[in-house]
């Protein structure tokens, strides 16, 4: 098992992950595109393995899937760090770009591919799922 760490842009929020990710995916849902102006690479981790230091703000909304989403971000710099879905209790989605070493994980699929813009570069070597995939298996 590899321990991973990350932080927001200004460093006010830092985190440690002491478990392997349950899934790593490139998400092309419209919400992720609005957050990043592109698809986002996200890693699902068990809540028990994520340790956060610092104060977070949050935004609650209903996703296209119908799930309630709680997106958490740094109130100082606005960096999007984490999200949680009512449809997937027990784990947190971490934005891979906030890891200190984002190359320590590799995506295995593109999700919400039907929402990707026509110019998007979806890696054909990755599994393609048009909408929301099944939740990752708990470990």
Automatic annotation (TrEMBL):
<feature type="domain" description="CENP-V/GFA">
    <location>
        <begin position="4"/>
        <end position="120"/>
    </location>
</feature>
<dbReference type="GO" id="GO:0046872">
    <property type="term" value="F:metal ion binding"/>
</dbReference>
<keyword id="KW-0456">Lyase</keyword>
<dbReference type="InterPro" id="IPR011057">
    <property type="entry name" value="Mss4-like_sf"/>
</dbReference>
<dbReference type="Pfam" id="PF04828">
    <property type="entry name" value="GFA"/>
</dbReference>
<protein>
    <submittedName>
        <fullName>Uncharacterized conserved protein</fullName>
    </submittedName>
</protein>
<dbReference type="GO" id="GO:0016846">
    <property type="term" value="F:carbon-sulfur lyase activity"/>
</dbReference>
<keyword id="KW-0479">Metal-binding</keyword>
<dbReference type="InterPro" id="IPR006913">
    <property type="entry name" value="CENP-V/GFA"/>
</dbReference>
<comment type="similarity">
    <text>Belongs to the Gfa family.</text>
</comment>
<keyword id="KW-0862">Zinc</keyword>
